[in-house]
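Now read the record:
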Amino acid sequence: MSGEVYHEIIISGYGGQGVILNGSILGKAATIYDKINATLVQSYGPEARGGACSAHVIISEETISYPYVHNPHILISMSQEAYENNIDSLRDGGLLLTDTDLVKRRKNDERHVSYSIPATRMAEKLGNKMMANIVILGYLASLSDAVNAESLRNAVEKSVPKGTEEKNLKAFEKGYKRGEKQKSGTG
């Protein structure tokens, strides 16, 4: 990584999708492997599983004095409600990542750089739809320089339940490769 690093990221969805785990993995990738600073603030709806939740992550080379995200550089939405609640806060030119099957984006959104991936469907094909969050992390790694892709792979491997590392890394790679194809215009 080079230059000044500063990214505000909101990962949003509903309880049970691994939203908070993704925030934690991003923070680990930044702090442990990229050796820079990160904060994580979690938010849950009134009911944990199935209710709205989000992870607010700030990644910076400088000290982070305020951990809340209000105008993110990156928004990952894994549910329609999460998209609707957060899209207006995404800064102009910000990166928007959505799950194709769970989020219907507004038409003609020229303000953002938008990509969509069928993360849940891809995870189901790998044998566990609960890995959709890891698919979308791989996707993020290919489309953003928020953290180094190898750092994110290492953090995924160290953060998922023991015995599931190989499957989760495969999910990460599927998302990463999809993002690389889309970036190059071949996917």
